[in-house]
Structures are given as structure tokens and as C-alpha cells.
């Protein structure tokens, strides 16, 4: 299983993640929780996946994170 690739993401991908975090009001505390999970260097499946943090979800495909969703928004793929 691949690891999430946070380094060398295309500029557009970083901008999208930043914009979604701001738009969906992901709190600083939530981002610290994301950072703690990221520090564990988790495996992700090759296809679509999501990690539910309770107040938000991080979604991705393969090794790339793709967007943030609010807690009530449906996500597709494998739940981590």
C-alpha cells in the first residue's frame, strides 16, 4: 500500500486543499489532529479513500490527498 505524498504536490493541489480548509472552516485544532495522523505515515489504498476526523474528512485517491469535506458530507472510497 502506498503512503500519502504530501511533498511535491502540484501547486494547484495545494491551493485546492488550502481553499477547501478555509472554505469549510477547518479549525487549527483539526489541522493539528491531521498533522498528528500524518506523522504516523499511514498507508492508503491505491483507489479512493477518506479519513474521518469527526469534524471533517480528508479525501484522497491513491497517494494523493484531494480535498476536505465537512462531517456531514458523504465521502467515497475506503474508510481509513
Structural write-up:
The chain is an alpha+beta fold. The protein has one domain. 31% of the residues lie in helices and 25% in strands. It contains 2 helices and 4 strands. Strands 3-2-1-4 form a 4-stranded mixed beta sheet. It is globular. It starts with 10 loop residues before the first helix and ends with a strand.
Outline the biggest β-sheet: 4 strands, mixed
Classify the beta-strand content into a percent band.
25-35%
Give the terminus-to-terminus CA distance: 12 Å
User: How many individual helices?
Assistant: 2
The spatial strand order of the largest sheet comes to 3-2-1-4
Helix and strand run = HHEEEE
Oligomer: single chain
Q: Taking Cα atoms only, what radius of gyration do you get, to the nearest Å?
A: 12 Å
What is the general shape?
Answer: globular
Domain module tally? 1
Amino acid at each position: 500500500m502506498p503512503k500519502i505524498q504530501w511533498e511535491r504536490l502540484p501547486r494547484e493541489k495545494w491551493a485546492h486543499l488550502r481553499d477547501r480548509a478555509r472554505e469549510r472552516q477547518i479549525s487549527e485544532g483539526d489541522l493539528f489532529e491531521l498533522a498528528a495522523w500524518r506523522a504516523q505515515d499511514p498507508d492508503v489504498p491505491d483507489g479512493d479513500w477518506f479519513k474521518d476526523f469527526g469534524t471533517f474528512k480528508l479525501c484522497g485517491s491513491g497517494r494523493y490527498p484531494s480535498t476536505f469535506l465537512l462531517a456531514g458530507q458523504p465521502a467515497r472510497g475506503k474508510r481509513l
